[in-house]
């Protein structure tokens, strides 16, 4: 049986301290101050997705980090024009997905939901 993964999807920017924690691994980068200004400039919509291969599926839907390299039909390919303002964030690995979901959601904030078409999508 295939392993179920978690991924975190964020429509940027945000206005909470957790945004600063989210990007702490980039603190030494030259673009960090601008990233923090951006990420704290307004609200975000946060989502946690779960499923087999969900990280790769989400990344395909989101598109390449650089919108100019993103395929048409992806969020970034259709809606973004530069890397620094690329509309959406998605976890790059199952491990980071688990970490980011835990960072943004407290115990009890996530609900389990099964769409009616689920039996038709997975074995």
Automatic annotation (TrEMBL):
Enzyme class name: transferase
Domain of life: Eukaryota
Catalytic machinery residues: 89 (pros-phosphohistidine intermediate)
Enzyme Commission designation: 2.7.4.6
Subcellular location(s) of the protein: Mitochondrion intermembrane space; Mitochondrion matrix
Cofactor(s) listed in the protein's UniProt record: Mg(2+)
SUPFAM superfamilies: Nucleoside diphosphate kinase, NDK
Keywords for this protein: ATP-binding, Kinase, Magnesium, Metal-binding, Nucleotide metabolism, Nucleotide-binding, Transferase
Nucleoside diphosphate kinase-like domain segment(s): 4-112
Residues that hold ATP according to the record: 12, 31, 59, 65, 76, 86
Catalytic activity line of the entry: a 2'-deoxyribonucleoside 5'-diphosphate + ATP = a 2'-deoxyribonucleoside 5'-triphosphate + ADP; a ribonucleoside 5'-diphosphate + ATP = a ribonucleoside 5'-triphosphate + ADP
Family per similarity comment: Belongs to the NDK family.
Entry protein name: Nucleoside diphosphate kinase
Highest classification ranks of the organism: Eukaryota, Viridiplantae, Streptophyta, Embryophyta, Tracheophyta
